[in-house]
Specification:
The structure holds two protein chains of two kinds.
Chain A lengths: L1 H6 L9 H13 L20 E6 L13 H7 L7 E3 L5 E3 L2 E8 L2 E6 L12 H13 L12 E6 L3 E6 L6 H4 L29 E7 L3 E6 L12 E6 L3 H9 L5 E2 L4 H4 L7 E14 L9 H10 L2 H8 L4 E3 L9 H6 L16 E7 L4 H15 L3 E7 L5 H5 L5 E7 L7 H9 L13 H12 L3 H17 L3 E13 L23
Parallel strand pairs in A: 1-10, 1-11, 14-15, 14-16
Antiparallel strand pairs in A: 2-3, 4-5, 5-7, 6-7, 8-9, 9-10, 11-17, 12-16, 12-17, 13-17
Chain B lengths: L1 H24 L3 H9 L7 H11 L5 H11 L15 H39 L11 H8 L2 H15 L11 H31 L2 H9 L3 H30 L1 H6 L5 H11 L2 H36 L16 H16 L31 H31 L2 H13 L2 H12 L5 H26 L2 H8 L4 H23 L1 H9 L15 H8 L7 H21 L15 H6 L7 H10 L1
The chains are: A alpha+beta, B mainly alpha.
């Protein structure tokens, strides 16, 4: 080494420093995130400027339309299904202009005249193929779990959908974002699906930058008319504070799911609240431990003051718990049945219990701490257990905790109110965190599942709700509202209780 | 060659450990992957079976690991279990962002460190250090600042309210400033503190005296003193480089930076093993490269002196004058404790949430209306005991392993490169989740910087003249270790351990979501900071109070540790006692060693 050093000329001519800087620039550029399409500020040559949107959940599966990413596609106005959910929770026409039930297991959907974003026509064959691909996905879309479905083209405008078992809520089911219709071009080999430029909505994906950003352009041939915004630039910002900051600094026009803690930092006119179908409940382990005794469950229910939670923890951005279905489920309010024959509250006498919850939603640990105080006032001794959700679920389902606080979407992916009851509160339910097994509940839920008529089904659902609440295995705490940040001057944002839409043809700034 | 093999073996153990993680911890990867893909999806047996089939989980961990390893030579790090995308491009992209962030943060850290040392350099260059009390409160406070707090404050104040710099995003040079500051300030404070600890001794070396006598400008002497001290810190600098690259999760989240910290955290939670393995391997490789670079730099700086054993021992010539600072800090802490302990830390009152400080609540209230003062005071004991215990374990392990640099060097790099959450998961998987798991999970990473520091000091200490002299006089290795090496190395490493005490408390809190460590509503300080973080803008007092107390604690530890010095009279060299009696004794031990040498 020393020898070499001596051989080296004493002074090397140095390249000018700025040259090095120039050489570094492209290298550095690779280390920054691409901002996802054009600069949002540029309004372009044509009318309508681009919208800038901050979404909370980054795509987990490369925007595969069969998983949870389907919601992203649906919220951005990229994909559409045969049907959509309207504000009352009933199926509304989307790609299908109308439908009728041919028999118990068969429905015929009549398509409207529409074009895919790649220019090809929306034909019955293409739609049937698209639905078939969804049924073949592994794992299948959530809306199709437990359902066997075949779709076939019928004539020039019809698609006939047959289910293995009678399915009275099929049109609701088909409104699920996971069943969006894509052009044949989208489907590659080995189950790969590419939604870029192959859907039917008012906006077409043009570029996806990993899990950080995406760019969309207006689809001029949209059947519902040309969209007002010329495009959408999407950023996926997982941190709630960062999303709020993005809106406050004018980096985005729309920011979804502003956390309660950040709501107060937004100006009042940029804050829009929508009641959602998400209900936070206290589930009591009815199978083992302290709450096996219905009298103690009743004591726990009586001890909980839900208005404190809605006002104190959610700062008024939530409604106190009324039932399993909150105010977002509009039909429930007028038809609700009061549970009768509840157990009389017993005396806890210092019984100790473990209350578990997860911190993926920041409000839940706070709710649990308030509950702890309320329950301790009533005479229980409470120990809290807070973990990340996926490390909690199996222990909760195994009955390791006496009580569990969780938030649950009461309409799930299907938009059908019965499925959540069957999954969460029946003996065979796959997500029965209360470990409830009650004959009356099972009977009421089974009865609701068979009813086809919308109105009667809703009545049956609320009867089942009352049967469940009678057991006191679940105490509805609050019904959450979602806060969307909408910058001044932005209009036409689609704020939807089902969290399936956000940007539509009429959204502009 | 041996070191290389050892390094490779460690990396292999790590990758295998990750590969076996779900099976060791009995957490079904199909479930965690499903929840990462879709939080709302119900985990029915059919869905889990479909995912298992898709990922090939039924083949068992060894097969999966084999496939993954077989792909590596082809540059194929497998496909992400969550997204199904190729792992390598994603990980490299994240690495790019993280490296850039780290570089800018490093620049910020160096500036901070320079600020911390400026006073010593200024005084030293003018030979006016004697008898001055050591500084260090400021840097100790900075070092105790939680990154997320600095980041939140910078983002909301500078980014949102003043609008000077972008509050989030990662699109160009101006976006790097705030996150780099948030990371660089505490890191720079630690580095600056360590450097400042050694500078006075360098200035007291005979060459400095000679240079000053010869009329060399102070600036030049200061530069040479830096050159003398920096090699001892290079290993720690290297650790920071790797730590900042892979472990700045909080800052990446607040500023929405698509970096490696977030990628590996998400992969660790979801048990997305291919991503986790690739991310960790990249970090381990980076650690190896950085270590090589620091070693090269150290050799360039003082290589010949190290080889020839021609160094002087670096010890502060005389204990700095003890200021009243430690007393003042101690007083502040005890007042907080005395005022807070009679209050109830658990009493909720949601009606009076987020109240600013008042006479009823001197530190204000938190998001559930609890008294922050009471929580800070009640949390102190738990936090301190636990953090002190961990620091003691880390110090012992760090010094012991630091004495065996060949063994511990690669181990330090590897452990340091492992994301903390992954380390905790691995520990919990092997250890089970008992009450001692969080202690062990933090200690298992906390010893690394201390060991690196020990090794670096030891390397220099072994090359000192007085050691050669002692050896020549027939001292055995045991004697050398007991009476020369350990007494020289322990005090600075102990001060270093104290400097990191607040960090340990924060690390403990960050394990909470795995079900390890303190659970709410415990007022443990780390938890206190974490639960009030979302309200940092609306109720700054709720985070500032615990952060301030933590910082005061850090300052107390550092200023009081000024007393952690080379212990008692040594049998050798003889001249010491007489010199010590002399109130003007300015010569450093090195001078004494030289006298002996000459004699």
């Amino acid at each position: 080494m020393r020898f070499l050093r001596r051989l080296r000329p004493l002074r090397r001519p140095r390249p000018p420093r700025f040259l090095a800087a120039f050489l570094l620039t492209p290298l550095l550029a690779g280390c920054f995130a691409s901002s996802g399409g054009d600069d949002g500020a540029g309004s372009g040559a044509d009318d309508g400027s681009r919208l800038r949107v901050a979404l909370a959940f980054p795509p987990a599966e490369n925007l595969s339309p069969h998983g949870a990413d389907a919601t992203i596609l649906s919220r951005l106005g990229v994909t559409e299904g045969l049907t959509a959910l309207d504000a009352n929770g009933t199926a509304a026409p989307a790609l299908a202009a109308s439908w009728r039930r041919e028999d118990d297991r068969t429905w015929l959907f009549t398509l409207r005249e529409a074009v895919f974003q790649d220019g090809s026509d929306v034909t019955p064959a293409a739609v049937a193929a698209s639905l078939t691909r969804a049924t073949e996905a592994e794992p299948p879309p959530a809306a199709l779990s437990g359902v066997t479905l075949t779709a076939k083209a019928a004539g020039g405008t019809g698609v006939r959908v047959t289910t293995a078992a009678p399915d009275p809520v099929l049109p609701l089911r088909l409104s699920s974002p996971g069943l969006g219709v894509l052009a044949p071009k989208a489907y590659g080999k080995k189950g790969a699906v590419d939604p870029v430029g192959t859907a039917t909505g008012p906006f077409a994906l043009t570029e996806v930058t990993g899990a950080t950003a995406a760019a969309l352009d207006r689809f001029d041939d949209y059947w519902g008319g040309r969209a007002q915004a010329s495009g959408v630039d999407v950023r996926f910002i997982a941190d709630g504070t960062a999303r709020a900051n993005a809106l406050r600094t004018g980096q985005v026009d729309l920011a979804e799911a502003i956390p309660v803690a950040q709501a107060a930092t937004l100006a009042g006119d940029t804050r829009r609240e929508t009641a959602t179908t998400r209900t936070t409940s206290l589930l009591l382990n009815a199978k083992s431990g302290v709450f096996k005794d219905p009298a103690l469950r009743a004591a726990a229910r009586a001890a909980v003051d839900t208005s404190v939670l809605a006002q104190g923890v959610y700062e008024g951005h939530a409604d106190a718990g009324a039932g399993l279905y909150g105010p977002a489920v509009t039909w429930a309010e007028g038809k609700r049945v009061q549970p009768a024959g509840r157990a009389k509250a017993g005396s806890p006498g210092g019984a100790s219990l473990t209350l578990a919850t997860y911190d993926n939603r920041p409000e839940l640990p706070e709710v649990a701490q308030v509950l702890k105080q309320q329950l301790e006032k009533a005479g229980f001794k409470v120990k809290l257990e807070v973990r990340e959700y996926s490390r909690l679920e199996s222990d909760a389902l195994a009955g390791r905790f006496d009580a569990f606080v969780g938030a649950r979407n009461s309409l799930l992916d299907t938009g059908d109110p019965v499925s959540v009851l069957a999954g969460d509160f029946t003996c065979d339910g796959g997500y029965n965190l209360a470990l409830l097994c009650d004959k009356a509940v099972d009977r009421a839920v089974a009865a609701a599942q068979t009813v086809a008529d919308t109105g009667e089904r809703q009545d049956a659902v609320l009867a089942a709700e009352a049967a469940i609440l009678r057991t006191d295995a679940v105490v509805p705490l609050v019904h959450q509202r979602v806060i969307t940040g909408v910058a001044a001057g932005v209009g036409g944002a689609l704020l939807d209780p089902y969290e399936r839409t956000l940007v539509g043809a009429g959204t502009r700034r | 060659m041996g070191a290389l093999l050892w390094r490779a073996a460690l990396a292999a153990i790590l990758v295998c450990g990750i590969g076996l993680l779900p099976w060791l911890s009995r957490t079904d990867p199909a479930l965690t992957v499903l929840k990462a893909r879709s939080a709302d999806r119900d985990a029915t047996p059919e869905v889990l079976a479909a995912i298992r089939a898709q990922l090939g989980l039924q083949e068992g961990p060894l097969r999966l690991l084999g496939h993954w390893l077989a792909g590596l030579p082809r540059g194929d790090a497998g496909r992400s279990w969550i997204s199904g995308a190729d792992v390598l491009p994603g990980v490299l992209e994240a690495l790019g962002a993280s490296l850039l962030l780290m570089l800018v943060a490093l620049a910020a850290a160096l500036v901070t460190a320079a600020g911390v040392c400026a006073r010593t350099l200024y005084l030293g260059a003018r030979r006016r250090l004697e008898g001055r009390p050591a500084g260090g409160s400021g840097s100790a406070v900075l070092a105790a600042l939680p990154e997320f707090l600095t980041a939140s404050v910078l983002a909301t104040v500078v980014g949102v309210q003043w609008g000077w710099l972008p509050a989030l995003g990662w699109y160009g040079p101006q976006w790097t400033v705030l996150p780099a500051l948030a990371l660089g300030l505490p890191a720079g404070a630690v580095l600056g503190r360590l450097l400042d600890d050694r500078l006075p001794a360098a200035f007291a070396e005979p060459w400095a005296l000679a240079a000053a006598a010869r009329g060399l400008p102070g600036r030049s002497i200061a530069r040479k003193a830096l050159r003398r001290c920096v090699p001892g810190l290079l290993p720690n600098l290297g650790l920071f480089v790797v730590g900042l690259t892979g472990g700045s999760v909080a800052v990446e989240q607040i500023f929405d930076i698509p970096g490696l910290g977030r990628t590996t955290l998400q992969a660790a939670i979801a048990q997305d093993l291919p991503v986790l393995q690739a991310g960790t391997l990249v970090l381990v490789a980076l650690a190896a490269a950085v270590t090589g670079a620091t070693r090269l730099a150290a050799r360039r700086l003082i290589g010949p002196a190290l080889r020839d054993g021609a160094l002087h021992t670096l010890h502060r010539p005389s204990p700095p004058a003890r200021g009243i600072l430690p007393l003042a800090y101690g007083l502040v802490l005890s007042v907080v404790l005395l005022l807070g302990l009679p209050r109830d830390p658990l009493a909720l009152d949601t009606a009076s949430r987020l109240r600013p400080p008042s006479t009823a609540h001197p530190f204000g209230t938190d998001a559930l209306g609890r008294d922050v003062l009471a929580r800070v005071a009640h949390g102190a004991l738990d936090t301190l005991l636990l953090a002190l215990a961990i620091s003691a374990i880390a110090l012992t392990a760090g010094v012991l392993l630091g004495l065996l640099p060949r063994l511990s060097g690669p181990l330090v790099d590897t452990v340091n490169a492992v994301p903390p959450v992954l380390a905790a998961l691995l520990v919990a998987a092997v250890w089970g989740s008992g009450p001692t798991t969080p202690v062990f999970a933090v200690a298992v990473v906390a010893w690394a910087p201390l060991a690196a520091h020990t090794s670096a000091l030891l390397r220099q200490e072994r090359a000192t003249l007085h050691l050669t002299a002692t050896r020549a006089l027939g001292a055995g290795p045991g004697y050398l270790l007991r009476s020369e090496l350990l007494p020289a190395v322990l005090p600075p490493v102990a001060r270093h351990a104290l400097l990191r005490l607040p960090g340990v408390a924060l690390a403990l809190a960050s394990l909470g979501f795995l079900g390890l460590g303190a659970q709410p509503p415990s007022p443990e300080w780390g938890l206190l900071l974490a639960e009030n973080q979302p309200y940092a803008e609306r109720a700054p007092w709720a985070v500032l109070a615990p952060a301030t107390v933590l910082a005061v604690l850090g300052a107390l530890a550092v200023t009081a540790a000024g007393g952690v010095r080379r212990p008692g009279p040594r049998p050798w060299p003889r001249s010491r006692r007489t010199r010590r009696a002399d109130p003007d004794a300015g010569e450093p031990p090195a001078v004494r060693a030289e006298l002996v040498d000459a004699g």
